[in-house]
Amino acid sequence: MTGQIVFDPLLPWPVIAVLGVLAVAGVILALWRGLAGWPLRFFAGFVLIAALAQPSFQQEDRAPLSDIVLMVVDTSASQNLSDRLTTTEDAAATLEARLAARPNTEIRRIEVGDGEGDTGTLLMTALSEAMAEDPRGRIAGVFLLSDGRLHDLDRAPSLPAPMHLLMTGREEDWDRRLIVRNAPAFAILGEPVTLTVRVEDDGAAPAADRTQLRISVDGAEPQSLTVPVGEDVELPITLPHGGLNVIQFTVDTAEGELTDRNNTALVQINGVRDRLRVLLVSGEPHAGSRTWRNLLKSDSSVDLVHFTILRPPEKQDGVPVTELSLIAFPTRELFLEKIEDFDLIIFDRYKRRGILPAIYLDNVRNYVEKGGAVLVAAGPDFASADSIYRSPLADILPAEPTARVVEEGFRPTVTDLGHRHPVTAGLLGAETWGRWLRQVEVEPLPDADVVMSGAGDRPLLVLDRVGEGRVALIASDQAWLWSRGFEGGGPQLDLLRRLAHWMMKEPELEEEAIWAEPTGQTMRIIRRTLEDSVGAVTVTRPDGETEEVTLEEVSPGRFEAIYEGPEIGLYRLKEGDQEAVIGLGPSAPKEFEQTIASGEALEPVIDSMRGGVLRLEDGVPTIRAVSAGRPAAGRGWAGITPREAYETMDVTQIPLLPAWLTLLLASAFIVGAWLREGRR
User: Fold this and answer.
1) d(CA 535, CA 472)
2) Are 472 and 376 in contact (CB under 8 A)?
3) 88, 125, 597, 677: most buried by Cβ count inside 10 Å?
4) pLDDT confidence of residue 313
5) Is residue 657 within 8 Å of 10, Cβ to Cβ?
6) Model confidence over 249-283: pLDDT tens digits?
């Protein structure tokens, strides 16, 4: 039970102050005039002014509240190194017992594990949330049992009491880590990308000048080189293929280092082509020629060379040759010397006229067999005696003309195989596509893939692989009708873009492929095939263990499954003869970027409340009570500040000047002053 005098003024304090000044002035005037009753006047004024302030004696019935000590225990991944977790648990038990032995003290234990994803250790976030649940006036101290490696220092709360770091780890700890900097998400094929690699020793590391660094691409046999320790090393790397390239850097584990979890770094870079170099060979001019040219020129990533015949040799009109052209077209350079510089050659309604000798076309055949790509857009000329099929190109073309041209309207249709093939799978709105009006009848080769059909279910789009290259045949010269919007048009741009990318061997358009799309520790395994079913995928984890994952068909030719990776690292996928590698998790997890225990990051926050950083290898500190603002840590001890908080159970107020007492006293003093001054 405690008591104090409180005031509940009837008038604002400034008004009471003015009245008090007037009362004092009246007393001074009475004293100056020599009135004997001036002391009684003073007491009368004092009573009246005091009554306006309404003083009361307040008594509170208080129940004392216990002091709260927050104990934040770090159980994140870096705390699992060496014997840190055991040391932390033993220290937490000892500290909790010592705090519990103190009178009027409660302990709040908060455990902080690994955050979702690669967020690191969020000690300050957990501390802020815990402090929000209890009154700040009851918090007497904060103890952090951690290695001091946290990743949310900016969330540190304003502390009402001392905070201490009881640090795990040992002074003789050391660790070697691998750092890969400036790794881009994309790189151009054929051009080296420079990665900066650094091998760094932290802590009480033994002297070392150089170490071995191994580099592996897509899980292949690694290459080894010697690099200096503590210096940046620039490594130029050329990506071997388009699509995702997984590059793994590894340094040897040194004897005595804290962990090898940060001795490996994964870098995933998408290989992209700089420019698509296309040679468009046009034969007889027709309405579709401009469409092909406009389509290719509209793409800024395409370098187009257009070889076209505007005046066939059989046209004899007497015009001098010198007036027909300014320069001769460099056919020899294009078709013999520089043909390998092109990524795709398109023959648009081209037929043999003697302009391109057979040796040129034979070189085109060799170009395809060595990895090139040829697309033929066939018109009536393809079915004629002058067809380019009657040339060395016959060895690579996927279909043979029957010499018949079908002149009737038809709506292009995706075949059953086409619904599985990435070139035509998922093309929307087939029921609204406009008609084409002409088609060349062809007989596809046994190994060719017919992905679209036309009039009378005749093959319309035929694909095939020849040697290391690819060829495609569109058995019609009417694709331009879609771009003109005839009868609603169709997906010409999407179809031709996919077709070009398939011929360029872009990984995302392979018919038979397996790959994975990672999200954190989870990956979506995707298997695309032209077959009706696939087997289970064998997943090889970073530790060498394997497991089988069954896929489900989500669309024609596409099978998927979700797989949760148990650890960070390189995973290998295999189904049949299809293989892929994928890296799960960050290239350098935050928990293992820096593993040597240190209180440097927390020192500014701890010093603000005069707390301390103490190593647990020196023992668990004893607990002392310290006053606010005093040093709260020393050799072998840590302090908490008792808050003496309480809860008010009941409040009683007794007026010191009730109305009747005020009237009695004021009247007595006024009458007394009048009587005394009246005798004179």
Assistant:
1) 30
2) yes
3) 597
4) 56
5) no
6) 999 888 889 888 888 888 888 887 777 888 888 87
